[in-house]
Structure formats: C-alpha cells, structure tokens
Amino acid sequence: MFNIYSLISIRSYILLLIIVISYYHAPAYAISNTADLKEIGIDEKLGETIDLDVDFINQDGEQVKLSRFFNEKPVVINMLYLSCPRICTFALDGSLEVINETNDLKIGTDYEFLSISFNPEETDLISAEKSKKYYSGFKDKSINPENGWSFLTSDSENINKLTQAIGYNFKKDGEEYAHPSALVVLTPEGKVSRYLYGLQHNPKDFKLALIESSDGKIGKSSLANKVLLFCYQFDPIGKRYALKALNIVKAGGVVTLLALSGFLAIFWVREKGHINKRDGGFKN
User: Fold this and answer.
1) What pLDDT is stored for residue 232 in this prediction?
2) Element (H, E) at 183
C-alpha cells in the first residue's frame, strides 16, 4: 500500500539517479562560462582538403607527418585529449567498439584510424600508455592494431593547423578542455568526407562513411559497395545513413522490367520452337 515511506523512497531513488547521471554524463568540458559555448563545436568543412604536411609524434616517439597515413585508403580522425577524465575515455571506448564490430572492413588494411590529442602538453609517454590499453581490446587477434590505429601528439602550431582545417573548435577551461566529440572521415587524398557525431557509433554508419570516402574502392567487393552507396545516402539532419527510397523504387522497377523481359524472351523462344516443329511436321 502506498504511504509516506514509499514517497520518501521514491524521492530518494530519483535523487540518487540524478546524482549518478550527473556524474557519468557530465558535460564534455566542465566549462565554467556558458558564453564560451559559442566558441566550441564543429564547423563542417565538407569537401575541403587538409594540409598533410603537418608534424606529429606517434605512440612510439617517432616524428611523422599526416601524409604518412594517407595512402590509397580513407583515414578517420578522432580529436581528444588523452588525459581527459571522462568524455574522451568514452569516445575511445566507442571507437574500439565500432572498430571491432565493423568486421568486413579491417583497420590498417581498409582504413587508418588516428586518435589525435589537441592538448600540446601531452607527449608520446601518455599516448604510448593509452595505445597499449586499447590495442589489447581488439577482438580479431589476426589484426596488428599498431599498423592501423595511431595515437598522436604535437605542439600548438601543428594542432591548430589540423583543427582549423577540419573545423574542430575547443577551448581550455581551467585544467580541462571544452570540446565536441566526433569522428572525421577523410578521403585517401585528405579531403573531408563525413562527420560522425557522438561517443558511440553505428557500425553501419561507420562502414558507409568509409566506403563513401573511398568511393567504394575498399573492402572485399567494390561492386557490393557501389550497391550500398546506391541504396543509402547520408541524412544531414539525422546525421545518419538512410535508404534512398527513390533509388530503391528505381532499382525495383529495373529488376521487374528485366524479369518481365526475360519471361517474354523465354516465352517467345518456346513459341518459336513450337511453330518450327509444327511447320516441320506439315512438311514431312
């Protein structure tokens, strides 16, 4: 029976739930001045080519240029800072999850994945530690993740060149950073192809973004990829790939026409055969 004690229990439960949600879903940036929110986010630069002559340090302490990763396959960039206590860890977890779930496209073989720190104070020591943690989470043990997933750091000048080129806006607030979370998919030539927002990503959207940025040239079957691109298109409002209804109708019409033509052709051949047999019978 509902009473005052039940009401207190419900209120206590709601309060506890609010506290838990507030802790685990704290803002991406813990920003203190809400006016600064106008300076944070992503200005999409679709179709623009980034400068590949930008220097970074990888998880092995090697100095590398971005051009090293752009070699006949698309590249995915995930901007973050490696010492981030909350959202960046969730973003890396989401990246590992979608990489593991996209079974028919192999990291390192079909695409490159770059987790790049925008914090100039971070070095290869922290990127090396972070990379080992996520490399150990690969389900497919036949893949060497070091050949496809790089963790990069650099100085302010090089970081700003990249973030400005892809339209990624962040701001330091105390000891933390205010920043958005998204994957930026680029073509093998370094052209911005697609933005996938959020911490977790649908494997279908991830796969289609890679196929789209490569013009269907990656994966086991380029023909199957072309069919996928014909059937799906990116919805800029919903930020997901959706079926192209008109193309599906067109394809259905073509299939129906071909099937009907095939049936009529078979019917015509059989009918001609019957006529020939009948005429031949009369001649005999």
Assistant:
1) 77
2) strand 182-186
Question: Is the CB of residue 244 less than 8 Å from the CB of residue 231?
Answer: yes
Distance CA 180, CA 41 (A): 5
Angle subtended by helix axes 203-213 and 87-101, to nearest 10: 80
Token pair of 49, please? 């080519």
Cα angle value 62/74/106 (rounded, 5°)? 85
Average pLDDT, the chain: 81
For residue 164, count other CB atoms closer than 10 A to its CB. 14
Q: What confidence score (pLDDT) does residue 7 get?
A: 43
Angle at 232 between CA 239 and CA 248, to 5 degrees: 135
**The pTM is what?**
0.74
88 pLDDT above the threshold of 80: yes
- pLDDT at position 238 is 81
CA 147 to chain centre: 18
CATH superfamily of this structure's domain 37-217: Glutaredoxin (3.40.30.10)
Residue 220 burial (CB count, 10 A):
10
Gap between the Cα atoms of 178 and 32, Å rounded: 10
Long-range Cβ contacts of 233-242 (<8 Å, 24+ apart)? 234/194, 234/208, 234/209, 239/195, 239/196, 239/197, 240/202, 240/205, 241/204, 241/205, 241/208, 241/209
Largest CA distance in the chain: 106
Give the HSE-up count for residue 219: Cα atoms under 13 Å, Cβ half-sphere: 23
* pLDDT at residue 2 is higher than 50: no
Q: Pairing mode, if any, of strands 171-173 and 176-178?
A: antiparallel
CB 113 within 8 A of CB 99: yes
